[in-house]
Amino acid sequence: MPRIGDIDRFIFIVGAPRCGTTTMARWLQAHPQVLFPFVKEPHFFAQHDLRGLDEAELRRRIEADYLDHFFPEPEAGQAVGADCSVSYLYVPEQLEPALKLWPNSRFIVGLRDPMSLLPSLHKRLIFTGDENIRRFEDAWAAIPDRAAGRRIPWSAIEPKWLRYDEAARYGTYVERLFGAVGRERCLVMLFDDLVADPAEQHRRLLELCGLDPVPPPELKAERESKGVRFLLLQQLLKRPPRMLLPYLASVRHHGRFDRQAGAKAKKSAPGGSKSLRKRLLKWNKAADEKSPIPLAVQREIKARLQDEIDRLGALIGRDLGHWLRPRE
Fold first, then answer.
1. Is 143 found in the same domain as 53?
2. What pairing do the DSSP bridges indicate for beta strands 80-83 and 106-111?
3. Are residues 73 and 192 in the same domain?
4. pLDDT tens for residues 141-183?
């Protein structure tokens, strides 16, 4: 298994979901110096608060439960680890143990105008089986209930993902991240810039992370929004109950929870899955229904998040005045 000493530093992609993080992950996965886990998002440091451990126990836990579980044996030249768990943006202090072991680590923060981020995130959570409210405006209205622990789907891996108001509290969480790991270790990448000039953003990422320059992989749309016919079927196939994981889950999803399945996932080709499950998922796809957010909901989003966007602009020295504008 990989040892702590085998890895010089980690690159953590900690940006908000639906902000180009899959593209950034592909850039790292294609780089010959990078050791990539069998799942893009292990979420390990979000699920385990290791700050209270002494150094010996911390090293033992990291090697046994993180490196051995999620990472293959490094090949020659692979001395930089990658972890693209977007959940880390929302618990930045829990990254401090990783920084203690790998002080040269770097943190990439992907962000996007909340007015386009939030409906995109909602559609993605429908597709992954974590959300069971079909219309975004209804999911937005359910925030108070979900903050109180009500109306949480049984299939949701992380109920916090359903807090759409929290997902775009950029000023709060970026400021906490800078405080936890140091501003100098962070690169904030805006979705607008990624779309306008991906080659330049690829260069900036490699430069901050100390990786050798390489041509960017072929650019393509990542995880385009899809609808689903039946929510329950999607939940069962994408987020099955633990007892049904061996029968319904993909190899990689099962590997998150089971060490033996994780060892199998490391050796399987990307996208490896049970053929019947794949056929059912394909059949259950539906065309994405483009429905604008009602203006009243857009105004609520703006009122809720304007201070956060203003704080973010001040933190990174960017004019973000075009964000949060209600659109017909």
1. no
2. unpaired
3. yes
4. 999 999 999 999 999 988 888 999 999 999 999 999 999 999 9
Say yes or no: 138 and 20 in one domain: no
What is the domain extent for residue 145? 114-163+223-286
Q: Half-sphere exposure of 315 toward its Cβ, with a 13 Å CA cutoff?
A: 23
Both tokens of 207, joined, read 């430069």
Q: Please spell the DSSP secondary structure of 297-328, one letter per residue.
A: HHHHHHHHHHHHHHHHHHHHT---TTTT----
Instruction: Name the average pLDDT for the chain.
Output: 91
Global confidence as pTM? 0.90
pLDDT tens digits along 187-211: 999 999 999 999 999 999 999 999 9
pLDDT of 278 reads 87
Residues 233-269 pLDDT 10s = 999 988 888 887 777 777 777 777 777 777 777 776 6
**62 is a domain residue:** yes
Q: Where are the alpha helices (DSSP H) in the chain?
A: 21-29, 44-47, 55-61, 68-70, 96-101, 114-127, 136-141, 143-147, 164-167, 170-181, 191-196, 198-209, 231-238, 245-248, 251-257, 259-267, 275-284, 295-316
136 domain-assigned: yes
Looking from the CA of 197 toward its CB, the CA atoms found within 13 Å total 7
Strand partners for 186: 107
CATH of the domain at 88: 3.40.50.300
